[in-house]
Amino acid sequence: MALPAATRGAAGLGLCRIAASASSSPPSSSAPPAGGRRRERDRELPFGLAERGMVVGGHRGMGMNAVGAPPGARVGAARERENTLLSFGRAAAHSAVAFVEFDVQVTKDGCPIIFHDDFILTQRTGAVYERRVTDLLLEDFLSYGTQKKPRKVSKPLFRRTTGDGRVLNWSTEEDDPLCTLQEVFELVSPRLGFNIELKFDDHIIYHRKDLEYALQAILQVVFQCARNRPVFFSSFHPDAARMMRELQSLYPVLFLTEGGTSKHHDSRRNSLGSAIQVCLEYDLHGIVSEVRGVLKNPAAVVSAQDSNLALLTYGQLNNVWEAVYVQYLMGINGVIVDRVEEISNAVEGFSKTELNRSVVVVDGAKHQAFSQQQLGFLLRLIPELIEQPH
């Protein structure tokens, strides 16, 4: 599924030729005018979610990589390197996958690149070297990991474990070079939607000009390359989400939230109720919540629907088809998953349940569907089983 070397090489010429022209000034006239705000009843949801059933998005492509995860683990053991053309291409091959979610940051020289972590790590002579991604020039960033040119010497990639912070070699069964936002638009099937997460460090206080610089660089690429591809933005940073909404009116903007499963110094990020208020105040199109936050607060689903807000979820429970089925019955618009093939096939099977309410088809196997009584019991029980906020 990897792209031919000749194709990749051609796309690599002038990797950031579009973003290089980005500045703090508004995008070119090809961009829609800013401030095109709509009333709630006229707000358009991404992918026509108001008319569609549940959609499935691939987390960083075919799933995230968790260093140290044992082979076959339900989460973090994707074969492909996350956030690469290989991983996105594999996701595009699954017709039931509507979009991929990926993280975009902007390099020091103004190029939007695809990378999740705030810091990138390598090792030389036994010592670990750590650099902030946004402090790197594009050429420096692309020098990490496997290279497009086989003979080019690269810096090996390392990563911290999420639990104890150990630094381990970041290896995958199938590797692929790091890439830019422009490459992803140009080389991934245009039928696949993009959920572009606007990535900012939680530990930095950003001035408006810094946010605008990054967002303008991203918009330059999107406006030039998106064509008819479905695109929507999301961000944990409420001011970045608000600013992206103000800068353009063509693409939906959703607010990312942990839904009350953890505490943050910014109160706007601490509950689903707060997330709904952020969306209404900033005229955003919807919410992407940690799934536990939704399952602990099913009433928020009704509030979001009443406010004409899209509601999607992410998190480890989205890799368990029964948990996804509960969300399907609750009316959740979409799920972002790591077990892309398994869950996308399961969601396809859910639609068949409409014809036979007693059976759910998952990976060709038939399972008993939940009755309304069982669903009510599950919704009452799940909050007790999920870790409470801390």
UniProtKB/TrEMBL annotation:
Q: Mind listing the GO biological process terms from this record?
A: glycerol metabolic process
One Pfam family hit: GDPD
Catalysed transformations (reactions): a sn-glycero-3-phosphodiester + H2O = an alcohol + sn-glycerol 3-phosphate + H(+)
Q: Which UniProt keywords apply?
A: Glycerol metabolism, Hydrolase
Quote the EC number: 3.1.4.46
| PROSITE patterns attached to this UniProt entry | GP_PDE
Stretches with biased composition (Low complexity): 20-34
The UniProt entry's sequence similarity note says: Belongs to the glycerophosphoryl diester phosphodiesterase family.
The entry's protein name is glycerophosphodiester phosphodiesterase
